[in-house]
């Protein structure tokens, strides 16, 4: 008799994953959405709290800085108060005149000063050609001055004027004079005082001519610059006529020919030749006393 093995059905083991998969999709989706909502809400609240805390700290810090600045302001200003002003390059201008141009208040702090503005104020002085201002920590102002140099006395109908070689007015001399400087005439004094460019140019030409002639002849040149095409120079008893276009060439031509001009002598008396015309190219015209 044959034996037959009979298989018995084994109980199926429950698998959690399978059970999870066997759950309905509707239930699973609802649970995930709920958890995601609360998670997002929590993160949003946390970020909001962080922002509020940061803003609070910043506002509190700024308020503290304002209070600190208000309390320490006078103290820090005291640390930078201007205590000394040094000025170099003065010859005709006084230190007091320079300081008055600065117009600084007694409680001026160094950090509140604009050096360029101070330099502009100083340049308003007629004798000052240029000025530079430097701030030296913690309390010092250093000023370098370039003064204008007196070059000529301009003789007008009403008064004598002192100017530099560029025609800038330095002083009203009235009826007084400076015998160490050349004399210029033929300039409109009122226009020169107003700083008209044409009159300044005439003074500039005359000052250059006086310097060139005076270095060679000695004496004090007296120059009429009323007509720049016929500049008349009287020095040591001799009268010269120049044209502005080529004054240096005209003077060089005269110096080359001077050894042959026996009638020309700068003795201050004009006993011999008293007029030399240099306005024409390649010629030196000598005229004796008429």
Global shape: elongated
Largest sheet descriptor: 9 strands, mixed
Question: Tally of extended strands?
Answer: 12
Helix amount: 25-40%
CATH architecture descriptor of the domain at 150-287: 3-Layer(aba) Sandwich
H/E series:
HHEHHEEEEEEHHEEEHEE
Strand order of the largest sheet: 6-5-4-7-8-9-10-11-12
Task: Identify the CATH class of the domain at 150-287.
Answer: Alpha Beta
**Relative strand content:** 15-25%
Spans of at least 5 consecutive residues whose pLDDT stays below 50 are none
> Superfamily at the CATH H level of the domain at 150-287?
Cell division protein FtsQ/DivIB
Radius of gyration: 47 Å
Oligomer: single chain
Structural class, judged by helices and strands? alpha/beta
Tell me the CATH topology of the domain at 150-287: Rossmann fold
Number of helices: 7
Mean pLDDT: 81
Distance between the terminal alpha carbons, to the nearest Å? 182 Å
Summed up:
By secondary structure, the protein is α/β, with parallel strands linked by helices. The chain has helices spanning 16-22, 25-79, 95-102, 115-122, 189-193, 197-217, 247-257, and strands at 84-88, 128-136, 140-147, 150-155, 160-164, 169-174, 183-185, 222-224, 231-235, 238-242, 275-277, 285-287. Among the domains are: 84-147, membrane protein fhac (Ubiquitin-like (UB roll), Roll); 150-287, 3-Layer(aba) Sandwich (Rossmann fold).
Q: Your description of this structure?
A:
With 290 residues, the chain is of the alpha/beta class. Among the domains are: 84-147, Roll (Ubiquitin-like (UB roll)); 150-287, Cell division protein FtsQ/DivIB (Rossmann fold, 3-Layer(aba) Sandwich), CATH 3.40.50. 40% of the residues lie in helices and 21% in strands. The protein contains 7 helices and 12 strands. It has helices at residues 16-22, 25-79, 95-102, 115-122, 189-193, 197-217, 247-257; strands at 84-88, 128-136, 140-147, 150-155, 160-164, 169-174, 183-185, 222-224, 231-235, 238-242, 275-277, 285-287. The strands form 2 sheets. A 9-stranded mixed sheet has the order 6-5-4-7-8-9-10-11-12. It is elongated, with a radius of gyration of 47 Å. The relative contact order is 0.06.
């Amino acid at each position: 008799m044959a034996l037959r093995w009979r298989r018995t059905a084994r109980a199926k083991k429950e698998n959690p994953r399978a059970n999870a998969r066997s759950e309905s999709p509707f239930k699973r989706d609802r649970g995930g959405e709920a958890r995601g909502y609360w998670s997002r809400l929590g993160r949003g609240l946390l970020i909001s709290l962080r922002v509020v805390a940061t803003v609070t700290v910043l506002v509190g810090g700024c308020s503290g800085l304002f209070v600190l600045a208000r309390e320490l302001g006078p103290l820090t200003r005291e640390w930078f108060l201007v205590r000394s002003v040094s000025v170099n390059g003065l010859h005709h201008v006084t230190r007091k005149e320079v300081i008055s141009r600065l117009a600084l208040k007694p409680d001026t702090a160094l950090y509140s000063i604009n050096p360029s503005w101070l330099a502009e104020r100083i340049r308003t002085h007629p004798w000052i050609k240029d000025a530079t201002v430097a701030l030296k920590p913690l309390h010092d102002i250093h000023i370098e001055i370039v003064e204008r140099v007196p070059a000529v006395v301009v003789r007008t109908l009403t008064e004598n004027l002192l100017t530099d070689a560029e025609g800038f007015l330095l002083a009203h001399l009235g009826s007084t004079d400076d015998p160490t400087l050349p004399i210029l005439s033929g300039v409109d004094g009122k226009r020169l005082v107003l700083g008209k460019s044409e009159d300044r140019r005439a003074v500039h030409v005359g000052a250059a001519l006086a310097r060139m002639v005076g270095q060679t002849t000695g004496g004090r040149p007296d120059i009429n610059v009323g007509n720049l095409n016929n500049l008349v120079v009287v020095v040591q008893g001799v009268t010269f006529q120049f044209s502005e276009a080529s004054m240096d060439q005209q003077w060089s031509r005269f110096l080359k020919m001077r050894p042959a001009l026996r009638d020309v002598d700068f003795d201050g008396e004009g006993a011999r030749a008293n007029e030399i015309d240099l306005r024409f190219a390649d010629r030196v015209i000598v005229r004796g006393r008429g």
